Amino acid sequence: MSAVTTSIDIAAPPEAVWDVIMDASRLHEWVTIHRKLGKHDVDHMEQTLCLRGVNFHVKWELEESRKAKHAKWKGRGPARSKAETEYSLAAIDGGTRFDYRNEFKAPLGPLGAAASKALVGGIPEREANASLAKLKKLVEQG
Question: Which residues are within 8 A (CB) of 111 and not within 5 positions of it... i.e. 6 or more apart?
Fold first, then answer.
């Protein structure tokens, strides 16, 4: 399983950050690898993502949610791949510390993990940081 963790400080209260990150219809505004939103409601969504020019579909289920504090999404992708994305928010100095974690488990065990690492390299971490920078700008500009 490959994991990406990163964080950013946003000059806005946790509730304002939460309202953006939990609104699936706004993913295109800040998630750099987001391409399309399919069926969705509060607890489920279908999403098309893109890495290295290849689109793939993920079905997400909200596993945990504590308003303006924490959310954990579990996803299923192509070929029985799995993902877990976690958002943690903490109030700091009138703003928010947003911690992001994503774990991806490629299909085919160790062989799939090695192939995935060779294909995507450091791209997930760069994209996560770019997404959080876009989120910061979006929320801070209102």
Answer: none
